[in-house]
Amino acid sequence: MRVLIIGKSFAASVFAQYFAHNPDNIVFCTLGGTDAEFIDILPDNAQELIEFVQANEMSLTLICDEDLIQTNIANEFIEAGLDIFAPCGGVLRILNSKIQTKKFIYKNKIPTPRFQFFEKSQAALDYIRKNPLPVFIKSDVSNAAPTCVATTFSRAKEAVENIFNCGAKKILTEEYLWGKEFCVYTICDGSKALALGEIAKFQNSFAALGADFLDENDREQVSKSINTIFEAISKEYGGYLGILGFNFIKANDKIYLLGFETFFKDIDVQIMLQSLGQNWDKLFISALSGRLNEDFPQLEQSQDYALACEFYENGKKINISSSAKTFNAARRMLVDDGADAKEIEEALRFWKY
Question: What is the CATH number of domain 2-86?
């Protein structure tokens, strides 16, 4: 199989390595430093990428970076008559905007933290002054400015001004909920979706396969929310092709939907690869062909424990993961590779492992 990986993220490097390890594959990647063959094309240069795919007859083209998925690349591939594994069309309108995401969730009557959005800094500050802290303050566009958790009004004012100074036209304020966060990843073929697994999160720096703090009622609510979203997407946008992650939080014994991921986060990607005993080559091709249900009536889940950690060392982001038959063995492997043992223990206490 001939594969093109588009992106420069850690997730792109992981999938490049995965596909390149199969001797039957010929793999190209816009990111250097992997076992795939590097192509000197910018990952956002749709026209050159299209010409490369046409000249080399790719079996699978995969976009691995969220910021690239939010561009028009997938639409341009479709217009050129080429398959690409990424969402496209009208659904990008809700995926490219945190405000549209929240409105879509709210419109479909799925519990989500209270939110407001503003086009003027003074209006945002007046609202924040009258409401409880802490509060999340976010740019409407993902890459405009980092999200802030403001615990004081002065910090909130600084964040609001920074977001607008970075060029954002709108900001989103969101109720701060203290709880246990997790993400449920799915793969979708345009009409059907398969759940790939759930990953527990701690402070965006530690992740573990499975969210054991969820009970049966919690999982029923999660499943209902996911089904509702896919039904709404199918009705309004004709379906969804790609990876879609659902970010939830369990707070006050209630499940809230926070937002979506359009591909695996860097901290999650190795866990997902390690946890599923599937042939990902066939999984992606099956999704492109609209045959997920027929080809994969049941996904094989590994029984190993999988953990991951993300941290910075000398200004460079480091992602490590481990997988083992026992939880303690996986934890020891992670610490041996450089993870902070105290942070892992803090996460486990929080999750009550």
Answer: 3.40.50.20
